[in-house]
Every structure is written in C-alpha cells, then in structure tokens.
Design goal:
The structure is a single chain. By secondary structure, this protein is an all-alpha fold. The protein has two domains: 8-57; 58-99. Helix content is 75%, strand content 0%. It has four helices and no strands. The chain has helices spanning 10-22, 27-34, 38-56, 61-94. The protein is elongated.
C-alpha cells in the first residue's frame, strides 16, 4: 500500500520557510519539529528567500488594473442592488394604481 500524499497550506510553508531562513536552528531540527523531510524545508526556505522581495515591490500595472476593475465591479453590483431595492419599494407603494 502506498502512503497518501500530504498537502500543506501556504501559511504553514511560509512559517517553516521563515524559520529556516532565520538560521537560528539547523534545517534538520526544524524538519524534525514539523515532521517533514529536511529537503522539503530547504526548498521552502529557498522559495521564501526568492519571493520575499515581491512583498515590498510596487504592484505592476496589470495588478493595479485588476484591483481597480474589481473595485468598480463591486461598486456597480452595490448600485444594482440599491436600484433593485428602490424599484421593489416603488412597485409595492404604487400597487394597483401603477397597472
């Protein structure tokens, strides 16, 4: 029988990678504490080190456009909801006189 492959959350990977990046403890100790293979700790450490500058980088134009589009979409859906509520209210108030 084969073992079922474990999957880890992004938060867990970041935590382990950050612990390894700090360099306070050796990788094999960190691996033993979190019950994972030392090679996996090294890979996550490398990924954290390479992707950490992205956290402080300015968002690209594409990302800014996506954020702006999402904000506009949210505003438009809110306006649609408001207009639907007003229309329902008017229909209820006008009742048989509007037909």
């Amino acid at each position: 029988m084969s073992k079922k492959r474990r999957s880890f959350s992004a938060e867990f990977k970041a935590k382990v990678g950050l612990d390894a990046l700090k360099g306070i403890e050796p990788i094999h100790v960190i691996a033993q504490r979190y019950e994972i293979h030392p090679v996996q700790v090294s890979q996550w450490k490398k990924e954290v080190a390479t992707r950490l500058p992205e956290v402080f980088a300015k968002p690209s134009a594409k990302v800014r456009d996506e954020i702006e589009r999402d904000r506009k979409e949210k505003d438009l859906y809110a306006e649609i909801g408001q207009l639907k509520m007003e229309l329902d209210w008017l229909k209820k108030k006008v009742g048989p006189y509007g037909e």
